Amino acid sequence: MKADSDKLIATDRRHIWHPYSAFASDLPIYAVESAQGVRIKLVDGRELIDGMSSWWCAIHGYNHPEMNAALSAQLARMSHVMFGGLTHEPAVKLANQLVEITPEVLQSVFFADSGSVSVEVAMKMAIQYWNAKRQASKQKFLTIRYGYHGDTFGAMSVTDPVNGMHSLFSEALAQQYFADTPGCGFGAACSETDIAPLQQLLEAHRNSIAAVILEPIVQGAGGMRFYSAEYLRRVSELCTEHDVLLIVDEIATGFGRTGKLFACEHADIAPDIMCIGKALTGGYMTLAATLTTGEVSQTISNGDPGVFMHGPTFMANPLACTAANASIDLLLESPWQQNIANIETGLRRGLQPCSDLNSVKDVRVLGAIGVVELHDPVDMKTIQPMFVDAGVWIRPFGRLVYLMPPFIINDAELGILTEAVYQVLSSY
Questions:
Q1: What percent of the chain stands above pLDDT 90?
Q2: Are 326 and 67 in contact (CB under 8 A)?
Q3: How many Å separate Cα 413 from the centre of its chain?
Q4: Confidence at 13, pLDDT banded by 50, 70, 90
Q5: Closest residue by Cα to residue 95 from 324, 334, 270, 331
Q6: Which of 8, 85, 366, 423 stands 20 to 30 A from 128 (CA)?
């Protein structure tokens, strides 16, 4: 078995480029044979408890029988058909489900390929909307620092230009407006000092800003920061006051991760445009969606050129839509709020001892998200094998060691994850 693993990895290193890595990198890599529930089985025979939900999307774990059955049934009907001039039941059902579970004003659904593309779609919607209203000068976007919105060019332009991952491309990207990230943590009040940087930029540039775009409550890959719901409410109010659209990027936070079905519910706000992805299909297929109001969709459709200028080849892929429908049904039929509350309790209890380690700057938990922030960046070449040897799959980045486990994880499995974090950081 180890020989098979070594062969796979050797061929991989010769030909495959992995996310955010050098080609033929010497960083550790592991060959997976199968996955079941919350466990990933490696080709070499080792089994790992998954603390990442495969980058936050596999909320029901792996190889779920109901998901598998739904996809098998759809595969027998059709795997794909173009969405230009055609429609199908999985897409119609999914659109209806999304309209029902998101804020009431969001009535129009555009299906996209991935989270990054859904952000691109949202940005294009905002620009086309203002163009249709004969305010073509509104082409810019305002966001807050430490945000992350994806790896395509529009999404990169609204990702933090200093602390983000895209500074190399700064000269090629559209120049946007960035406000300082609020200092008010989740559960705290939002002061005038917190909101002032964004408010000042809105007041100064309202005639050129098409939309404010941000991750509601939780900033994900830009730093795993949690901020005040009151701040988000103030942002929404300022957007209305200054005639600017509000885009919320719920790609990482949507479908229960923060304890609410969507993170914007913490602030009781309704955006003009919402981006969703990741957990949308329960980790089975790549699919995202951009939802907007009837006002935005009708204004775009009634303006020049009379159509929305985007259309992916695999838009509304029937298999992906089927996976999304099955995943949403599973989530809503489960006691997901209690499951998230249990995970939150376990993360708080299990990660708190890390606060006493000299290497640790902060420990924070919200919903099914647990973060240990270190003073210094981790060395992936060293720390990744330590987690694998401890029997867990945890993928840190920068100064952050974090957990976003599947919602089906039990107390014992969660305890193994949190204990591994403490033990590895204690000896790292």
A1: 95
A2: yes
A3: 24
A4: very high
A5: 324
A6: 85
Task: Give all strands (DSSP E) within 175-333, no chain letters.
Answer: 177-179, 209-214, 218-219, 225-226, 245-249, 273-276, 288-293
CA distance 34 to 63: 9
Give the pLDDT of residue 163: 73
Q: Is the pLDDT of residue 164 over 70?
A: no
User: Do the beta carbons of residue 129 and residue 245 sit within 8 Å?
Assistant: yes
Within 10 angstroms of residue 100's Cβ, the number of other Cβ atoms is: 10
Burial 366-386 (b: 16+ CB within 10 A, else e): bbbbbbbbbeeebeeeebbeb
Q: How far is CA 115 from the centre of its chain?
A: 7
For residue 99, pLDDT over 80 is answered with yes
Q: Which of 246, 269, 250 is nearest to 129 (CA)?
A: 246
Contact between 292 and 106 under an 8 Å Cβ cutoff? The reply is yes
Which amino acid, one-letter code, is at 312? P
pLDDT for res 199: 98
Could you tell me the sign of the dihedral formed by the alpha carbons of 105, 113, 159, 260, in that order?
Answer: positive
pLDDT one-digit tens code per residue, 300-312: 999 999 999 999 9
CB 110 within 8 A of CB 310: yes
- Cα–Cα distance measured from residue 27 to residue 416, given in angstroms and rounded to the nearest whole number: 25
Q: Which candidate, 343, 396, 394, places its Cα nearest to that of 368?
A: 343
pLDDT for 55 = 97
Q: How far is CA 259 from CA 91, 212, 225, 256, 369, in A?
A: 27, 24, 16, 5, 10
Confidence of residue 161 (pLDDT cuts 50, 70, 90): confident
Residues 266, 247: Cα–Cα separation, whole Å? 16
Model pLDDT for residues 303-358, shown as the tens digit of each residue: 999 999 999 999 999 999 999 999 999 999 999 999 999 999 999 999 999 999 99
Asked if 207 and 177 touch (Cβ cutoff 8 Å), the reply is no
**Catalytic residue annotation:** 20, 148, 249, 278
Cα distances (angstroms) measured from residue 8 to each of 26, 385, 426: 15, 18, 33
- H or E element: which one contains 402? strand 400-403
